[in-house]
Design goal:
six-stranded mixed beta sheet; Rossmann fold; binds adenosine-5'-triphosphate; 38% helix; alpha/beta
């Protein structure tokens, strides 16, 4: 479904991604784990058209999307849930969800999908008229995810959904990622919480200072001494 071939991404002189290649097959949850500053967010931003690779290519459903405009990438079925949530604080929960569908014009479909999001996240249903800026961190993460799903993505890019959330909330969010995946959405999940990410992923890549240093099935990585020492707290 997605094939990243040898991309290099720079911020001015900073070489943030170095010859990165990875693949996501339809139906999978693939996770990209790595420490602070490894380049995880940079990769997602490049996939969703916010940054342009200097070299290499990105193939999505056999089309090259490297350097394409973000809007056309969303239209082709890739949605990005950014790090730090970024909901529209002065708008209600429901208005945020409606905004997620801004490229669609099937009114009935949009209405139905808002109901689907409320089934997935009953918390949001209870708070549909509440201003999003007053939601808890976990609720904002749910809303950011719901908003991205309103675009009906085939591929969902998630940037550190666990960040700053209590363990029980993280568990809930990860259960929902799994459900969404089982219902047909492919997921590329960027995480520092390697433990949680590997527990739901099919396959994984490890990014260190801009380079992929390891890849394999989630099980292989969970058992890897290198991963255990660096990312699983020596468990
Ligand atoms: P974190 O989990 O801390 O967000 P990350 O793995 O997502 O880390 P990135 O945000 O992708 O890391 O950053 C990769 C590298 O690129 C870092 O060295 C960072 O300082 C640098 N970088 C990120 N954004 C910019 C920018 N706008 N301008 C210059 N350098 C940047």
């Amino acid at each position: 479904m997605l094939k990243v071939n040898n991309i290099d991404v720079f911020y001015g002189n900073i070489h943030a991604l170095k010859d990165v290649s990875l693949e996501v097959n339809e139906g999978e949850i693939v996770t990209l784990i790595g420490a602070n500053g490894a380049g995880k967010s940079t990769l997602l931003k490049t996939l969703s058209g916010l940054l342009k690779p200097k070299n290499g290519d990105i193939l999505y459903l056999t089309q090259s999307i490297a350097g394409k405009q973000a809007q056309s990438i969303v239209k082709s079925g890739i949605s990005h849930v950014p790090e730090g949530r970024r909901v529209f604080a002065n708008m209600s929960v429901e208005e945020n969800l409606e905004l997620g569908a801004y490229l669609r014009n099937d009114r009935d479909g949009i209405k139905k999908d808002i109901e689907y999001i409320y089934e997935l996240f009953p918390r949001l249903d209870e708070r549909k008229k509440q201003l999003s800026g007053t939601l808890s961190g976990g609720e904002q993460q749910m809303l950011a995810m719901g908003r991205a799903l309103m675009a009906k993505p085939k591929l969902l890019l998630m940037d550190e959904p666990s960040m700053g959330l209590a363990p029980l909330v993280v568990k809930k969010i990860f259960e929902i990622i799994k459900t969404v995946n089982e219902q047909g959405t492919t997921v590329l999940l960027v995480e520092q919480n390697a433990n949680m990410a590997l527990s739901i992923a099919n396959r994984a890549y490890v990014l260190e200072t801009g380079k992929i240093v390891l890849s394999g099935t989630a099980k292989e990585l969970q058992e890897s001494e290198q991963v255990k020492a660096a990312y699983l707290g020596g468990l």
